[in-house]
Every structure is written in structure tokens, then in C-alpha cells.
Amino acid sequence: MAQAQVLAGRVAVVTGAANGMARVMARALAGAGAKVAGVDVDAGGLDRLAAEPVFAGKFLNAVADVSKAADCRHAVEQVLGTFGALDILINCAGISMSTAAGHKEARIKFFEADPEGWQRIVAINAIGAFLMGRFAAEPMIKRGWGRIINVTTSFDTMLAGGLSAYGASKAALEASCVSFAKDLEGTGVTVNILVPGGPTDTPGFFPPGKPRPPLLLDPEIMGTPAVWLASPQSDGISACRFIARDWDVRLPAAEAAARARAGGMARARRERQRSPRVCDVVDVSGSMPPTRAAPHRARAPRTGSARHRGST
Length: 312
Hints:
Blueprint: E1 11-15, H1 20-31, E2 35-40, H2 43-50, E3 59-63, H3 69-83, E4 88-91, H4 115-143, E5 146-151, H5 155-158, H6 164-183, E6 189-195, H7 223-230, E7 241-243, H8 253-260, H9 264-271
Parallel strand pairs: 1-2, 1-4, 2-3, 4-5, 5-6, 6-7
Helix pairs in contact: 1-7, 3-4, 4-6
């Protein structure tokens, strides 16, 4: 079902937009009426995205390295100068553990990793999200409304062997989400987490010719929940974690969101009685309760073993 124009008049920034899940989410936001600025180091990829009909007249190509404060500040200034506002930030720019592996393998032991590559992973995946949020938050606060959506990964991936930099970067971003949400209480700006819920078919993480899990999620599953989180329909919901794999597109949006929120329906019922609607991303044991699967999920089933789920 096509997205209604729930984001008409809104301006969104999507990092990592040249490829993968970020590309999908940028398209979905534009389809829902938003003007979109794509942020990426891949200028050619942004040019190809801008040429798609859904972006006609409402796309800004913002080439930037999110690990650099000056680039992030300039990207936000470009958006404000072009569109006059900034309402939504999706932090999806990310690089895999292969950046620290000499032979570009998917995993490498920390004591064998290239030190510069290891630091680059953390700089892009975690520090980049902070820098973009740092400069994007101010115009959102001034307008009294905004959305920051961070794409992280599954908890088992954060703790997996051979993924020390990748896991650490996503764990840092996960914790930062809660801290950011607390800092922004009362401003009208919310911060939430969206994860695919399993290994996802993106070229940066599963390139052709390299080992791949037997089943991969379709990155298209990220589109519908991203639009809902970016819209006024999610007003008041902050510091929550949503799993795109569990989003049932046939349900009303509010019910689909409750099912996709980490912790399942029982947790959702408890949280509805709290005010403001803020749910903990991690419990005191450091892990989430099991998520109750919806009977029908968006586009792709739960796939892979616990060891593989969430390796994106």
C-alpha cells in the first residue's frame, strides 16, 4: 500500500543514502512527501538517487564524510540554506568490520585488526551519528519538533567475536540514543532506534563473491517503519527500539509499531501506561526480553540463527 503524504512539508536528512537501507528509507520518505537531503561520500551514488522520479524537485545532494565535524556542519547548513528547515535525521551511514581486515573479510580478531581501520569504523558508525545529531538538533529544537532515527544492530552482533569495532560502534550509538532522548526531553524532538532485525541484503556488508548467510532480509522492510517514526504519528515516543522485520504492513500503523517495538506486545501494553512514553532500550541485564513475532511481517520472514540475526 502506498504511503500517504504524512511527511508533506517536512525536510529529512538521510546519511549513507547512496546505498542499501539508507537509500530505501530516503525513497520512502520522499514517497511520503518529504524533501530529502542525501548525505554520503559517494557522489555518484547520490547523483543516481537524485535522478529517480520520486525525488523530482525535492532532493539535495550533500557530499560529506560524517566522521568530520566540518563536513557535518556544512551538510546541515546546506539543508537549511536550500530547504529552509530540517525536521528529520536518519543516521544510517555505516561501514563493516572488513574495513579493519587486510583481506576485507567480514570478521577479524581485534588483535589482528588494522588500527586505523578499526578507528575508522567507530568514527563513521558512532561518532558520525553524534556529529550529525549535534548540528541537526539545534534547528529542530528551534521549531519545537524533530525526529532523530538511529540505525544500529542486534544485540548479539554487538557482542560477537570478530566484530569488535563494529559491535562497539553500534553499542555506543544504542546507548547514545537514550542519552540524546533524555537531553531532548520537553523540546518536541524525539530519538529512536530502527534495526532491520537480521542480516540484510546490502552490498556494503555482503558484497558479491563473499560468504553470505543462507537467507537475507530485503532492505525494503526499513521503509514503512522509517516513515512512521519520522511522522507526527510517533509524537511523544522516544528512546524506543523498533525491529523492521516484525512490522506488519497490513495492520494499522499504531498496532504495527507496537508489535515491532522491541519487547513485544506485553511490554507495549505496560509502556502505554507510562508518561511520557519512553521505553528503555536495554534492561539491567544488558539484553532485551524476547520479541513476540507478529503472525505476518513486512516482506521478509525471521531468518538465520541467533548467531547471524542482526549482523547488519
